[in-house]
Design brief:
single chain; about 120 residues; alpha+beta; two-stranded antiparallel sheet; 5 helices
């Protein structure tokens, strides 16, 4: 079980800021294995899909989404997102080597081709 809180706030310069807080209680073993990127990379991809939808007005095509995720561009996005979650984990106090190992496992899980 997890909890999600979403807030929309008006920005002083114009526009709207979307703030999402996701709280989940994860056992220590799973957290050590994957760290915050396990869910964070998925949220990043979801927000990117939302941005594409808002800019194009088109609904997401599951086939196109899967093709993008398997592409070099999609895999690079997931790698970079995982690296940024690693940096956030280190900044929050996680041992750097442990955070990097967790990020490597997260990246591998997201970018696995299945072949």
């Amino acid at each position: 079980m997890s909890w999600i809180e979403v807030r929309l706030m008006t920005e002083p310069e114009g526009g709207t800021r979307l703030v999402l807080e996701h709280i989940a209680h994860v056992d220590d073993e799973r957290w050590a294995e994957f760290g915050p990127g396990a869910v964070g990379v998925g949220w990043d991809m979801g927000f990117m899909g939302l941005a594409v939808h808002l800019s194009s007005g088109r609904p997401a095509d599951p086939r196109e989404s899967a093709e993008w995720a398997a592409s070099a561009e999609g895999r690079q996005f997931m790698l970079l997102a995982s690296q940024r979650w690693c940096a956030a984990s280190v900044a929050a106090g996680t041992d750097e080597a442990a955070a990097r190992a967790a990020a490597d496992r997260t990246t591998a899980a997201y970018t696995a081709t299945g072949s």
